[in-house]
Design a protein that fits this description.
46% of the residues lie in helices and 10% in strands. It contains 17 helices and eleven strands. The strands form three sheets. The chain has a six-stranded mixed β-sheet with strand order 1-2-3-9-6-4. The longest helix is centred in the middle third of the chain and has 31 residues. 41% of the residues are buried. Bound molecules: progesterone. Progesterone (STR) binds next to α12.
């Protein structure tokens, strides 16, 4: 096979690599194949070779290993010009300078204010707003039913809720939320031509830079303004760094929480006995949230880290300059970590809290507590208002979007009673 997305066929592309399907036609099958391919597996990402780590213990170790870095210039295939901005996944890696792309002391400097703003204690202050958004969207669900009583839980509830929350936090005006949702949908979809994806990323950069300039002139009570102001005695972030953090927060805060909420609803509807336990108070929503995070991770593959030295993992060696993906979905299904029934959804599973879906180490998701508050608000409110909620189509008919890195459904049509 030739390699349409890169300047030349990448050297070292091995046979036997697990080809990651851009159309996501069989996510469970692919997850199992990755797990079977070994602790460290070779994968093919649209013609570009990389390693992926498929096990909890080794992923944890690699996520703490300072010889793996986020800086794209450490990637041999990038330095040599084999991978270019024509590759459709480049936007997942070359996303501008931010806490997502920098390591070490500079990473701490870029990240501190964001993680401080998102501690469980600080989040208590915004819980009432999340509850209010949830109630409004539940009203819209009721009002949005078609003549057969069907409404898309994704479009009307699971997608707008995280956008409203991250929008409020960062100070993005409500009037821009639909535009951002549309742009990110196109950004993540493999059906979007690469020139369009690059164009929309450039438009988003302009949008975020304008917002940062506005807040620089007139600070408001939001995290964007906080990011602009210097720490006492510290070095302020540059405009590029604030923009980078802002877009990382909006992209991550929006996209991943959609998956968490929808995947939890889907898991409960396809495991009615467990839904009963929760509704009867025999199990709590936190158990549902943690088991969903483990079993059906919002992020399938996290791109990418690069080896600055040879790194041995088991019997394999990641060579200096090679790329490493973290395959969170396979990691959640690790039998060593979660037992032989790791493929089963079970909210009573003793290891349900011992997943690594938010990552580990210095880059561990700074929004983890926020997404948990969102899900812990949305799920009980949804089933409280609509205890008879059910799918309007057979579960097998729910399709995944053609998104390689995120676990995202096209739509989730439901009946409310
Ligand atoms: C999308 C494009 C962009 O402008 C900035 C970022 C940085 C943060 C990334 C985001 C990306 C893609 C989705 C990510 C997010 C961090 C967490 C989220 C990878 C590349 C996850 O899926 C875990």
């Amino acid at each position: 096979m030739n390699c349409p997305h890169t300047a030349a066929a990448p050297a070292g592309r091995s046979t036997g690599a697990v080809v990651i399907d851009p159309m996501v036609q069989d996510l469970d099958g692919e997850t199992a194949r990755l797990r079977d391919a070994g602790v460290l597996a070779r994968i093919d990402l649209l013609g570009v070779p990389a390693w992926t780590v498929t096990r909890h213990a080794e992923a944890r170790q690699l996520l703490l290993d300072q010889r793996l870095v986020k800086d794209i210039d450490a990637w041999e295939l990038w330095r040599s010009g084999v991978v270019t901005r024509a590759w459709p996944l480049i936007g997942m890696i070359d996303a501008g300078r931010s806490m997502f792309t920098v390591d070490g002391a500079e990473h701490r400097r870029l990240r501190t204010k964001t993680s401080q703003a998102l501690t469980p204690r600080r989040l208590e202050a915004i819980r009432p707003a999340i509850e209010k958004f949830t109630e409004e969207l539940l009203d819209q669900l009721e009002a949005g039913r078609d003549e057969n009583g069907v409404v898309d839980l994704k479009a009307v509830f699971a997608q707008p809720l995280p956008m409203k929350v991250v929008g409020m936090l960062m100070g993005v005006d409500e009037s821009q939320h639909a535009m951002l949702s549309r742009q990110y949908k196109a950004f993540f979809s493999m059906l979007t031509p690469q020139d369009e994806r690059l164009a929309l990323l450039a438009e988003l950069d302009v949008f975020y830079a304008e917002l940062v300039r506005e807040r620089t002139a007139r600070p408001a009570d939001d995290l964007t303004s906080a990011l602009i102001l210097a720490e006492e005695g510290g070095e302020p972030l540059t405009e590029e760094e604030v923009v980078g953090n802002l877009k990382a927060m909006v992209a991550a805060g929006h996209e991943t929480t959609i998956g968490l909420v929808l995947n939890a609803v889907r898991a409960l509807l396809s495991h009615p006995d467990q839904l009963r336990m929760v509704l009867d108070g025999e199990a709590d929503w936190d158990a549902v949230i943690e088991e969903t995070l483990r079993w059906d991770t919002p992020t399938t593959h996290l791109l990418m880290r690069f080896a600055t030295e040879d790194i041995t993992v088991g019997d394999e060696v990641i060579r200096e300059g090679e790329g490493v993906v973290i395959s969170y979905r396979a990691i959640g299904r690790d039998i060593e970590q979660h037992g032989p029934d790791a493929d089963a959804f079970d909210i009573t599973r003793p290891t349900r809290n011992r997943h690594m879906t938010f990552g580990h180490g210095p880059h561990i998701c700074p929004g983890a507590a926020l997404s948990r508050v969102e899900a812990a608000t949305a799920l009980p409110a949804l089933f409280g208002r609509f205890p008879g909620l059910r799918l309007a189509v057979p579960d097998e008919e729910i399709t995944k979007l053609p998104v390689m890195t995120q676990n995202d459904m096209a739509a989730f049509p439901v009946l409310l009673d």
